[in-house]
From TrEMBL:
Keywords: Membrane, Transmembrane, Transmembrane helix. PANTHER family: CHAPERONE-ACTIVITY OF BC1 COMPLEX CABC1 -RELATED (PTHR10566), PROTEIN ACTIVITY OF BC1 COMPLEX KINASE 7, CHLOROPLASTIC (PTHR10566:SF113). Residues 81-334 form the ABC1 atypical kinase-like domain. Belongs to the protein kinase superfamily. ADCK protein kinase family. This is ABC-1 domain-containing protein. The chain crosses the membrane at residues 494-514, 520-542. InterPro entries: ABC1_dom, Kinase-like_dom_sf, UbiB_kinase. It comes from Anabaenopsis circularis NIES-21. It holds the Pfam family ABC1.
Length: 548
C-alpha cells in the first residue's frame, strides 16, 4: 500500500489530515470503518488543500468547477482559493528560459524584467521586450514543478483507490474523477496546449455574431518562441476589469452607459462561445478579465477551457426556456437527456424535486433572478437523484457563475435574462437552420431521401423476423394471472357454446332430411348430446357465481 511507504510527502499529507481533524480520513488511514464517508466542512477542506501546497490548491480550483459533485457551499469556498505563491528566483528562471530558446536570450530579447508581474503554483509571468521592440509576456514554468506534480498525482490516485472500495467511491466513480483531475493537472504542464487554446479562442472571437469583435481582445501567441515550458504572447496593457477607472471626459457616453456596454459585450462574447462555437473560456474570474487602456476588454489565461457538442448546446438552450417558464417537467426531461450514466431514475421524484426548487421563483421577476444560482440548484437536484452529468456541465455552470458575478460587481444593474432575450430568436434560428439555410435544407432533403430508401427495407427486415419467429418479445406484467385464468374459462365456455350450437344445428338438418331409420337415430343422438352438454355448461356457469 502506498500509504505505508515512509516518504516525506506521504507523512506530510497524513499530518495535515490529522491536524485539521477530518474524521473520515483519520478512520480511513487507521483502518477504521469507512462505509459512511463524510466530507470535511468547506472551510476545513480549503485549509487542508492550502496546507498541502500548490498542487492541491490547483486540485481545489478544479473541484470548484464541479457543482455537479459538490454543493454550493463547497463551490463558493473553493472558488476563493488562489495559487499566489512566492516567486522563484530570477537566476533559476533565467536558466530555464535559456534552455527553452533556440537562440541566445540576448538576441531574442532587448530586456526581461526579472521581477515577475504574477506568480502561481505552476508558472510565473515576466514582462519582456523583443529584439524588434514589441512588448511580450513570458509565462515560465516553475523549475521542478513537473516532478512535484508527478509525486502528488500518484498520491491522489492512491487515495482514490482506497475510497473507490467504499459504496461512496463506487457511486460517485471516484477513480474516474481522480483520473480526470490528474489528466487536467498534467495537461497544464504543456504550455503549447494553452497556446493552442488561446489561438482558437482568438480566431473564434474575431468573428463576432452578436458583438463588435474589435472590442474584445485575446493575446497573440508568438509560436516561434513558445515551448512546453515557456509561453510567449502579446503584452496587453490594462488593469483587472473591477479596478477599471472609467471616465466620461473623453467619451460621449456617461459612466453608467459605458458599464452597461462592457457587460453586454462580455455576455454576448461568452454566449457566442457557449451556444454557437461550443468552445469557451472556462475561468472568467476577475483577474482574467482586463480593461485595456484603449477601452477594449481582454480575456487572459486560456489554460482552462470547456467544450459543448451541438446536441448539448441545443439541450442547454431549451433549458434556458424551461427555467424562464418554470417548467419542472421539461427540466427533468432535459436533465435525463444530458445524463452521463444509465442508472435507473424515478422520474416522478425528479420532477417533484424540480417543481419544489422552481416554486420559490414563481413570484420573482426575471430581473431579480440569479441565473447561475438556478443552474447550480438544477445540478444539485440531479446529484441528489444520483444522476451523473458530464464534467463539462460543471465547467458550464462555473463559467456562467463567474461571468455573472463579475458582471454584477462591475454593473449592479445588469441582468443575465435581459441580455439573453435579444439573442434567443437568433440562437434558435441558427440551431434550426445553421449559418447556411440552403446547405441545411439540402442536408435535410438528403436525410429524408435516405430515410425513404431505408424505411421499406427496415420494415421488410422486421416482417422477416416476425414471420421467421426470430423476433422475441419479453414482457413482464405483474398481477395478470387472475385475468389470464378468467379469459381461459371464458374461451372454454365459448367453445362449448359453439359446439352445442353446432350439434343442435346438425341434428336439425339431419332430421329434416331423414329418410331412413338410421338418420333418425343419429339426429336423436345429436340432440341428446347437445342437451347434455348445454345442461353441463349452464350448471358450471351457475356454480361459478359469475352469471351476472
Amino acid at each position: 500500500m502506498f500509504l505505508t511507504q515512509t516518504v516525506p510527502r506521504q507523512r506530510e499529507i497524513i499530518e495535515v489530515v490529522f491536524r485539521n481533524g477530518w474524521d473520515y480520513m483519520r478512520r480511513l488511514l487507521t483502518g477504521g470503518k469507512t462505509d459512511e464517508p463524510q466530507l470535511p466542512t468547506p472551510a476545513v477542506l480549503k485549509n487542508i488543500l492550502v496546507n498541502l501546497g500548490p498542487v492541491y490548491i490547483k486540485l481545489g480550483q478544479l473541484l470548484s468547477t464541479r457543482p455537479d459533485l459538490l454543493s454550493a457551499a463547497y463551490i463558493e469556498e473553493l472558488s476563493t482559493l488562489q495559487d499566489e505563491v512566492p516567486p522563484v528566483a530570477w537566476s533559476e528562471i533565467e536558466v530555464l528560459i535559456r534552455k527553452q530558446l533556440k537562440s541566445p536570450l540576448e538576441e531574442v530579447f532587448q530586456k526581461v524584467n526579472p521581477v515577475p508581474v504574477a506568480a502561481g503554483s505552476i508558472a510565473q509571468t515576466h514582462r519582456a521586450t523583443l529584439a524588434d521592440g514589441r512588448e511580450v509576456a513570458l509565462k515560465v514554468q516553475r523549475p521542478g514543478i513537473d516532478v512535484t506534480i508527478a509525486q502528488d498525482i500518484a498520491l491522489i490516485q492512491g487515495i482514490a483507490d482506497l475510497v473507490a472500495r467504499t459504496d461512496f467511491g463506487q457511486t460517485y466513480e471516484i477513480k474516474s474523477i481522480a483520473e480526470e483531475f490528474t489528466k487536467a493537472l498534467e495537461a497544464e504542464l504543456d504550455f503549447t496546449r494553452e497556446a493552442g487554446f488561446t489561438d482558437q479562442l482568438r480566431k473564434n472571437l474575431a468573428k463576432g455574431s452578436w458583438f463588435d469583435p474589435k472590442q474584445i481582445v485575446v493575446a497573440e501567441i508568438y509560436w516561434h518562441l513558445t515551448s512546453e515550458k515557456l509561453l510567449v504572447m502579446e503584452w496587453l496593457d490594462g488593469v483587472p476589469l473591477l479596478s477599471a477607472k472609467l471616465s466620461s471626459d473623453n467619451n460621449s457616453k456617461d459612466i453608467a452607459t459605458q458599464r452597461k456596454d462592457i457587460t453586454t459585450l462580455l455576455f454576448r462574447a461568452f454566449f457566442q462561445q457557449l451556444y454557437l462555437d461550443g468552445f469557451f473560456h472556462a475561468d472568467p474570474h476577475p483577474g482574467n478579465l482586463f480593461y485595456l487602456h484603449d477601452g477594449r476588454v481582454a480575456l487572459l489565461d486560456c489554460g482552462m477551457v470547456g467544450r459543448l457538442d451541438p446536441r448539448t448546446q441545443q439541450i442547454l438552450t431549451e433549458m434556458l426556456l424551461a427555467i424562464v417558464d418554470l417548467d419542472a417537467g421539461r427540466c427533468a426531461q432535459l436533465t435525463l437527456q444530458l445524463a452521463d450514466s444509465a442508472q435507473p431514475v424515478i422520474v416522478a421524484r425528479l420532477e417533484n424535486d424540480y417543481d419544489r426548487m422552481l416554486r420559490k421563483y414563481h413570484n420573482v421577476s426575471l430581473t431579480e433572478m440569479n441565473f447561475s444560482q438556478v443552474i447550480y440548484e438544477i445540478l444539485q437536484v440531479a446529484r441528489n437523484n444520483k444522476i451523473r452529468l458530464p464534467s463539462n456541465m460543471g465547467l458550464y455552470a462555473k463559467t456562467l457563475a463567474n461571468l455573472e458575478g463579475v458582471a454584477r460587481a462591475f454593473n449592479p444593474e445588469i441582468n443575465l435574462f435581459d441580455e439573453v432575450k435579444p439573442l434567443m430568436t437568433d440562437l434558435f434560428r441558427r440551431q434550426l437552420v445553421g449559418e447556411n439555410p440552403v446547405r441545411s435544407l439540402l442536408r435535410t432533403a438528403l436525410d429524408l431521401k435516405s430515410l425513404s430508401l431505408q424505411s421499406p427495407r427496415q420494415v421488410e427486415l422486421l416482417l422477416d423476423r416476425v414471420t421467421s419467429e426470430t423476433l422475441r418479445w419479453n414482457l413482464s406484467l405483474h398481477g395478470l394471472d387472475g385475468v389470464r385464468r378468467t379469459m381461459d374459462d371464458a374461451a372454454n365456455r365459448l367453445s362449448f357454446s359453439i359446439l352445442v350450437g353446432s350439434l343442435i344445428m346438425g341434428a336439425a338438418i339431419i332430421s329434416t332430411k331423414a329418410q331412413t331409420p338410421q338418420l333418425s337415430v343419429l339426429s336423436s343422438v345429436l340432440f341428446a348430446a347437445a342437451s347434455l352438454l348445454g345442461l353441463w355448461l349452464i350448471i358450471s356457469i351457475l356454480r361459478s357465481g359469475r352469471l351476472r
